[in-house]
Amino acid sequence: TFKQEELLTKTNFDELSNLDKKHIIHPVAVPKVHASVGPKIIFSEGKGVYVKDVHNRSYIDGVSMLWNVNVGHGRKELADVAHEQMMKMAYSSTFYGYGNEPAIRLAEKIASITPGDLNTIFYTSGGSESNDTAFKLSRFYWEQKGFKNKRKIISLRRGYHGVTVSAQRATGIDAFRNFSGSSDPDILNAKAHLTECELGDKSHPEFSGCIRSIIESEGAEHVAAVILEPIQGAGGVHLPPEGYLKAVRKLCDEFNILLIADEVICGFGRTGELFGVNNWEVVPDLMSIAKGITSGYSHLGGVVMNNRVADVIKEYDDVLPHGFTYSGHPTACAVGLKNIEIIENERLVENAHQMGAELEKGFNYLNEKHEIFTNQRNVGLLAGFDLMKDPDHNIPFEQSKQAAVSVVDECYKRGLLIRCFDFEPGMNIIAVAPPLTITKQEIEKTISILDDALASFSQKL
Ligand code: PMP
After folding, report:
1. Which residues are within 8 A (CB) of 133 and not within 5 positions of it... i.e. 6 or more apart?
2. Which domain of life is it from (predicted)?
3. Predicted structure pTM score
4. Of 46, 67, 201, 318, which alpha carbon lies 20 to 30 A from 244's?
5. Distance separating alpha carbons of residues 260 and 286, to the nearest angstrom
6. What residues are in contact with ligand 1 under a 6 Å CB criterion?
7. pLDDT in tens, 352-400
8. What pLDDT, in 10s, does the model give residues 65-106?
9. Does 182 share its domain with 241?
10. Which stretches in the chain have pLDDT values below 50?
11. Which is nearest to 119 in space by CA: 286, 258, 282, 270?
12. Across the strands, what pairs with 73?
């Protein structure tokens, strides 16, 4: 249950809204609209899968905010551990070889739960920093091995890897990739979607845009690494075809290229396995993690690397000129450690698996009932579906209908926060990724709101 909060008066809300409009540029929002309308919601508290705004309206947090609040909102254990660490020593640096116990204990824990011999971590403060770090360490690895030209990084269309310059350039969503004309000439973005062409079929229609053809045309001696999300998130929840991840792993081995798995969304139980790659029994050479490592209670990320990579870096006999002020932040690491303990003790990975099955049942129901609902997919609690005008004939909605945006808005009015993707013509994708603590009843409520929202949108057509 929520705390009994004093309600903000309308005057208070207006004051906050005006201050926000005046002083904040919001990420991934339309600045001109924001500057006139102000914040859509001002959150005040959260408990479990529910969040509340300053008007005392409550919502189901259907995408765990930014797919990161895995253990749900309002966890006292995490507040307590942060409080305790802050009172002891809130912050200390890990530069110059300085250590702190939470960072050390968390590193050991991560090594024990990640697959294969991913045993060593470089800490960052989030996903973008993790990916930029993974690129740098991959290139550094090859440099140390005597391959100075192995520098290029191959990423996938619709992949999302963050907004620092190299991560931005690896992102396969044009608006993000091209924003502000940033460049990193060593990042190559595959033109193909997740396709079966990595399985080696050169006659596949998308072959010329796929990873293998890029390696062949660039020359493997120039390629350092391939990066991909086991399941693409912000590109619209795209699952890899069966056999794809294994094929890419094989491809990387064949051409002596490192494989980086971006587990920023998939990691820490989201997919009903501790890590996304576990669904396909693939072990990458480097793994980027963030988000679910602390469930958003503190900002933390990292690149976990296997012994092959770590051993080469550990041989370097000069100062490693890389690191963030908050690399190995003790409070963030203490929170991370407790967060993983919660995931384990409450069997949240298993719950994600089971509730994923419930969500799938709900989607089956929506699919039966609503003609526009199609292409449902999920792995655990990473789920999505498409809206189409006529799925049987593959006819998308006209852009002017704003189908996905409208359905998300109908959900919002009914107390469900979800997210949509419509960055390509005809694309109307909706993502659902609630906290891993969600119950069957809460899934049913989510489906019931979606049901009403879809009906209301269809009626208005
Ligand atoms: N990788 C993936 C797969 C992500 O989803 C995100 C964030 N949505 C990032 C990287 C970037 O993480 P951050 O926003 O913490 O920099």
Report:
1. 122, 124, 288, 303, 322
2. Bacteria
3. 0.97
4. 67
5. 5
6. 66, 126-128, 131, 160-162, 229, 233-234, 262, 264-265, 290
7. 999 999 999 999 999 999 999 999 999 999 999 999 999 999 999 999 9
8. 999 999 999 999 999 999 999 999 999 999 999 999 999 999
9. yes
10. 4
11. 286
12. 48
Q: Ligand 1 centre from 266 Cα, in Å?
A: 11
Q: Give dist(CA 261, CA 81) in Å, integer.
A: 30
Locate the ligand 1 atom nearest the alpha carbon of residue 126 and give its number.
15
Neighbours of 410 (CB within 10 A): 19
428: tokens are: 């109307």
Same domain, 334 and 385: no
* Residue 224 lies inside a defined structural domain of this protein: yes
Q: Which of 345, 363, 378 is the last residue of a domain?
A: 345
**Model pLDDT, residue 405:** 98
Q: Rounded to an integer, what distance in angstroms lies between the CA atom of residue 325 and that of residue 272? A: 33
Residue 129 alpha carbon, nearest atom of ligand 1:
16
For residue 444, give the 3-state DSSP assignment: helix
Instruction: Name the domain boundary from 345, 368, 403.
Output: 345
State which H helix or E strand residue 252 sits in. helix 244-254
**Ligand 1 pocket mutation, candidates 28, 173, 231, 291, criterion most atoms within 8 A of CB:** 291
Place of tokens 């006819």: 395
**CA 136–ligand 1 middle distance (angstroms):** 17
Task: Write phi, then psi, for 423 (nearest 5 degrees).
Answer: -85, 0
Q: Are 254 and 166 members of one domain?
A: yes
> What is the pairing mode between strands 43-47 and 50-53?
antiparallel
- How far is it, in rounded angstroms, from Cα 229 to Cα 363? 24
Q: What share of the chain is helix, strand, coil (3-state, %, to 5)?
A: 45, 15, 40
83 and 202 inside one domain: yes
**What contacts 301, CB < 8 A, 6 or more positions away?**
123, 124, 125, 126, 127, 129, 130, 264, 288, 289, 290, 291, 293
